[in-house]
Amino acid sequence: MSLVLSDVTLSYPDGDGRLTALDRIDLTVEAGEFVAVTGPSGSGKSSLLAVAGTLVAPDSGTVLVGGVRTADLSAAERARVRRDHIGFVFQQDNLLPPLTALEQVLLAVDLRKGGRRAHRTRAMELLEQVGLADAADRRPHQLSGGMRQRVNIARSLMGSPSLLLVDEPTSALDRERGRQIIALLAGLVRERGVATVVVSHDLDALDPGNRTGVDATASIADGRILRVERHRSHVGARFVETAG
Ligand code: ADP
Ligand code: MG
After folding, report:
1. Which CATH number does the domain 3-95+161-239 belong to among 3.40.640.10, 1.20.120.1810, 3.30.70.890, 3.40.50.300?
2. Which residue among 10, 15, 58, 92 is least enclosed by CB atoms within 10 Å?
3. pTM for this structure?
4. Helix, strand, or coil here: 187?
């Protein structure tokens, strides 16, 4: 599923006037593409994810999720699109203190639908894929920051999203652990063909151009995309390295 933002503008009330958080944004993310958006704090990164994730309607412009204009959907239909197709990894890990890692991942699905056992098996598989097979029974206070972020990622993939939106996943981590998280995400989403947007103020953590890093980097400042650098291009169903 692809994501297309065309000429998207978003403003918030600000005293007597409006503050422009997104200013005529154009951004396309193909299915299976892993795109980073980097820019300083306040540049509009979280706003961009909120609009892409149908949580906030832009003032103007078009948001296409899987080719569907989100503005044409009712609130209930947008909620369904989010539930069935979009995964979110928020900046705060939002883990609930009393629950184990396994239970946190299981929270992402409606346990009344499908078999309980099947959900459990899938949650365990995801925990294994993020390197937490041995930590499934631990509660958040027994996990490091990096491990909590891995639980977060496992949880976001539980609903098999086609679009994954990730807000500052490395902000609480040191460089090495940050890069490990990006490499982990890149591997997981490439394997599944998930269109992925990761926003971060820390370009270095994203490791652009590295084989474990992102496919493209867009830089944003004051709500505007300044440039998009593609490190790989889409050829057929896969990405190849682009020269230079
Ligand atoms: P970033 O994630 O890059 O730090 P944000 O998208 O959170 O940037 O914010 C972009 C701008 O919009 C900032 O100036 C911020 O203060 C403002 N802003 C964000 N959310 C709101 C809101 N709900 N109401 C008013 N202003 C907001
Ligand atoms: Mg933010």
Report:
1. 3.40.50.300
2. 15
3. 0.92
4. helix
